[in-house]
UniProtKB/TrEMBL annotation:
PANTHER family: 3-OXOACYL-(ACYL-CARRIER-PROTEIN) REDUCTASE, 3-OXOACYL-[ACYL-CARRIER-PROTEIN] REDUCTASE FABG. NCBIfam families: PHB_DH, PRK12429.1. SUPFAM superfamilies: NAD(P)-binding Rossmann-fold domains. PROSITE patterns: ADH_SHORT (PS00061). Pfam families: adh_short_C2. This is D-beta-hydroxybutyrate dehydrogenase. The lineage of its organism: Bacteria, Pseudomonadati, Pseudomonadota, Alphaproteobacteria, Hyphomicrobiales. Transmembrane segments: none annotated. Belongs to the short-chain dehydrogenases/reductases (SDR) family.
């Protein structure tokens, strides 16, 4: 469904973003990978996508906390791939601390990466999308775009803000072939989550199953993690014709978390 289209996925060197980039490439889109990591691993992911799906895959190391680098990445994508049809704002970081102790630089970084970077990519991508009459903006928010948890003031503020901006953009571009939506995952199974389990087992004297059900998935009624492929499949669906009238929406994929 995305042959001869091009996609930019921020924060796509691992986790959800890489699965999203692979999902879009599978549908025929050329992709821009972005994010940090070991150069050889990034190159392996990039070359793997190009070889496996027969698309162009390029990489930008732009730091999503730096507006000038974001502008460069977007210009590079337009220049190299000729267009940006699909924009997935996925880059995100987390920091947990009581509000009175929350480091100011962590607040600024979370707001910059999890919220403002999407403003900067969107403002760069929209003119081309309008000119071509097609665009899909997908912002990876979180259950924390709807509900809060303690000690996550910056993350919750950024994700609520991302949802608000998405709705506003959706209204601005309505009727021009462009949609803007959020996907809001609950807990997603990523290497980051997996690597926390042994330490928590030791610290609390719990089994792996207890850590998963009673600690990690306490808020998630299905007691199962979301997979990165499930998030990627929703992004691909949002790019299809079937999703043409879905805009300004927040798609929860959270095992029932926010239904409570
Ligand atoms: P991850 O840590 O596995 O991947 C994050 C990606 O962003 C990596 O590619 C990293 O290199 C990149 N990144 C980090 N800082 C960056 C910066 N300054 N500039 C450019 N790239 C940067 O995280 P993930 O779990 O895949 O999360 C992806 C998104 O999904 C985030 O926005 C996160 O808030 C959201 N999310 C994750 C979960 C979860 O349980 N994993 C749940 C809900 C929402």
């Amino acid at each position: 469904i995305l042959t001869s289209k091009a996609a930019v996925v921020t924060g796509s060197t691992g986790g959800i973003g890489l699965a999203v980039a692979r999902g879009l490439a599978k549908e025929g889109a050329d992709v821009v990978l972005n994010g940090f990591g070991k150069p050889e691993e990034i190159e392996k992911a990039r070359a793997g996508i190009a070889a496996e799906f027969g698309v162009r895959a390029i990489y930008s190391g732009a730091d999503m906390s730096k507006p000038a680098e974001i502008a460069e990445m977007m210009a590079m994508a337009e220049k190299e791939l000729g267009r940006i049809d699909v924009l997935v704002n996925n880059a995100g970081i987390q920091f947990v601390a009581p509000v009175e102790d929350f480091p100011v630089e962590k607040w600024d970084a979370i707001l910059a990466i999890n919220l403002s970077s999407a403003f900067h990519t969107i403002r760069a991508a929209v003119p081309g999308m309008k000119a071509r009459g097609y665009g899909r903006i997908v912002n990876i928010a979180s259950a924390h775009s709807i509900v809060a948890s303690p000690y996550k003031s910056a993350y919750v503020a950024a994700k609520h803000g991302l949802l608000g901006m998405t709705k506003s953009v959706a209204l601005e571009v309505a009727g021009q072939g462009i949609t803007a939506n959020c996907i809001s995952p609950g807990y997603v199974w990523t290497p980051l989550v997996e690597s926390q389990i042994p330490d928590t087992m030791k610290a609390r004297g719990l089994t792996k199953e207890q850590v998963i059900e009673d600690v990690l998935l306490k808020a998630q009624p299905t007691k199962e993690f979301v997979t990165v492929e499930q998030v990627a499949a929703i992004v691909t669906f949002l790019c299809s014709d079937a999703a043409k009238q879905m805009t300004g929406a927040n798609l929860s994929v959270d095992g029932g978390w926010t239904a409570q």
